[in-house]
Amino acid sequence: MHFLYNTIISISHFFLSIIATFNPKIKLFVSGRKTVFDTLAQKINPTDKTIWFHAASLGEYEQGLPVIEKIKEQFPTHKIILSFFSPSGYEVRKNNTVADVTLYLPLDSVSNAKKFISLAHPEMAFFIKYEFWINYLTELKKHQIPTYLISGIFRQNQLFFKWYAGFYRKALDSFTYFFVQNEASKLLVQNLGKNNVLVSGDTRFDRVATILEKDNSLPFIATFKNDTTTIVIGSSWPKDEELLSQYINTTKQKAKFIIAPHNIKPEQIQHLKNSINKKTVLYSDMKDKSLQDYDVFIIDTVGILTKIYSYADIAYVGGGFGNPGVHNILEPATFGVPIVIGHNYSHFAEATALVTIKGCISINNKNELKSIFDELITNHSIRKEKGVICSKFIANNKGATTLILDTISKQQRFTT
User: Which of 11, 248, 354, 395 is the most buried (most CB within 10 A)?
Assistant: First the structure.
């Protein structure tokens, strides 16, 4: 089976190289990996002490960031190596300030794994949430490098739990410790005969909790809001926007709307703007505009949605009408904002929990959207009640980062 796995990796590389000629995202995926070993050779000296973190994409990076920051504090003389699998993670965070070297992870071939580990020579390795690359894990174990899974999630339908995937289960032997998000994941790992597992929770709560300590002011958003009840719509997709534009166009409620779409391609932004018949301004076109005179503000840029949530009275988080489902609801929750989402959220533990305790409301259609928005706009006490539920939810789930680092420090010591 291991031979078959390596064959699939080789075939994937061949086909990705072909697809890259006409697919921009795959082109980034392929071309970005061509310079990885040169970058490591240039930036990591044989005498450097290093620690390696791997994130599949942007979400996993955000999830691991609290641990990366604390590790950097504890080991200031070590260089932090951060790898991404996906362009949507690397291209957005390639200029981050927490890592000394940020790069793509080469495909999981035997030769790539050997060369990467040889050049990086990490003293510790961290995999965030998902992604179990067999050859990299095998190489880490061969070199006896302590390896940790943080904010891990295991589900019964994963390959580890199939009768024919013994080679894949064996790769889990490489982990020194599993830090998982919930009891169900812990039980699944223990059923594989592994007791080096701890329910630490989700480090994303630590990440979003620190947002409140930062300067979240955006004067142009304050000007637009103009002390009016404001609904912030984050990471919206076309299916979300179809319902939302209908509500915006027909509502008689006194409210303003800020829309930060998931996709900010010009043609899609223009389509969204054209679908709204109220006075609308784009972020890219706001210069010299009297923002307080507009009803709808479309944010056709990235990187400021978190701060915008601090101005929300109500948040709608998109993705819940498609696959893989709703986007990050923890950022608006940390500001104590009631949240509305679509119905596809069952794979997201934090969304399920917040819906259950009524800080977050799931809707199925435009009629439910209208009913919920109308109630939240007009009833300040309900808004406040649900907002408090959200902020307490964040506060009550902090602490995963401290638990992870305390456990690691008890197991082994490193000279700094």
Answer: 354
